[in-house]
Amino acid sequence: MLGVCALIKIIMSKFRKELEVLINQNSLENSSNTPDFILAEYLENCLKAFDYAVLQRTSWYRKEKDELNDKIADADF
User: Fold this and answer.
1) What Cα–Cα distance (Å) separates residue 38 from each residue in 6, 12, 35?
2) What pLDDT sits at residue 26?
3) DSSP classification of residue 76
4) How far are the Cα atoms of 7, 9, 10, 15 from residue 4, in angstroms, in the given order?
5) Exposure b/e, 43-55, CB count within 10 A at least 16 = b
6) How many other CB atoms are found less than 10 A from the CB of residue 23?
7) pLDDT tens for residues 24-49?
8) What pTM, to 2 d.p., does this model score?
């Protein structure tokens, strides 16, 4: 049985290949004179960077919420 990380790698590899084909079919590489596989890899890395940013945002809001809960717990009402 494949682990989650291995499965994600397989999915992303398939996605990148399909993206290369899509870029090529629509001649989207022409304006930048950049090979389709480089553009596909770039876009995949953009998705990874966005995923990382979402994780950071979630962590930041969770920390902020935890700090607020601590202040509420310490408050005398």
Assistant:
1) 22, 15, 5
2) 96
3) -
4) 5, 9, 10, 16
5) eeeeeeeeeeeee
6) 20
7) 999 999 999 999 999 999 999 999 99
8) 0.73
32 Cβ partners below 8 Å, 6+ apart? 39
| HSE of 64, CA atoms in CB hemisphere, 13 A | 6
> Can you tell me whether residue 33 is helix, strand or coil?
coil
Contact 58, 64 (CB under 8 A): no
Containing 35, the helix (H) or strand (E) segment is none
The set of residues, in sequence order, having a beta carbon less than 8 Å from that of 69 and lying 6+ positions away, is none
- At 2 the three-state DSSP class reads coil
Cα–Cα distance, 39 to 76 (Å, whole number): 57
Extract the tokens encoding 11.
Answer: 């999915």
Place of tokens 């494949």: 2
